[in-house]
Amino acid sequence: MMISKTYFVTQKIILMKGTFVPGAFLGFLLLLGSCKPKENPPLVYFPDMYYPVAYDPLMKAQDPYSKHDNDIPAFVKNEGATALVPVAGTVPQNSEALVEENGGVSLSADDYNAGYENSKKITVSPLNPVNEDKDLKKGKILYEKTCAACHGKAGDGQGSIVQSGSYLGVPNYADREITVGSVHYVLTYGRNMMGSYAGQLTPGDRWRVAMYVMNEFKKTPAVAAGADNSSANP
């Protein structure tokens, strides 16, 4: 490693003036100060980097560093909620604005069974009936990608995984007493050996799959009743 002659001359001057010891002591203090815990920094220029705030998108945003409400214009226009409109050109999630209580969350056995029985009373989906043909087409695509491996493309419970012998006991839809509501409920919460698909399918897409199942395998069209059919949310 090459060290310039200037470095040695500078060090000699510092030693001659008797400032080396104070300079080293000052450097030690700076080094010591930089090692303080980050949770209690001496000076914070950007508090969010030390104390990140997790906003609930459906709740009014509060300013964590002062007593006044958050006045960010985008939040104010949304009545304080932090869930904003999707950026133009992106794919929005849950564009139907279907809100389900405890969607995908584990329930007690009693609550689950009660919810399942109530879901059987739902015979129409809450999606807009104007888009029924499009919803059925998308439901078919989603079913074949997500469900057919077990339930089979014909809904007979003979998907490729079942035929391989890796998984058994998948029922035939034709033999089941189901409604569009109960199919959606099972997609949301799971049933028996089938787990929940709430993490893979949006609420609207679960209704589309359920509509396709009823229309294709039960020959019972689940004609949409309109977006204001609140009873369709189990």
Characterization of the model:
This protein is mainly α. It folds into three domains: 5-35, no CATH class; 51-85, no CATH class; 109-232, Cytochrome c-like domain (Cytochrome Bc1 Complex, Chain D, domain 2), CATH 1.10.760.10. The chain is built from ten helices and no strands. The longest helix has 15 residues, at 20-34. It starts with a helix and ends in a 17-residue tail after the last helix.
In short:
The protein has 234 residues and is mainly α. The protein has ten helices and no strands. It has helices spanning 5-17, 20-34, 47-50, 73-77, 109-119, 132-146, 148-151, 160-163, 180-189, 203-217.
Query: Share of helix among residues?
Result: 40-55%
What is the fourth-level CATH superfamily of the largest domain?
Answer: Cytochrome c-like domain
Q: Round the mean pLDDT to the nearest integer and report it.
A: 75
- What's the Cα radius of gyration? 31 Å
What is the 3D form? elongated
Tell me which CATH architecture of the largest domain applies here.
Orthogonal Bundle
DSSP strand count: 0
What share of residues are in beta strands?
A: under 5%
User: How many H/I helices?
Assistant: 10
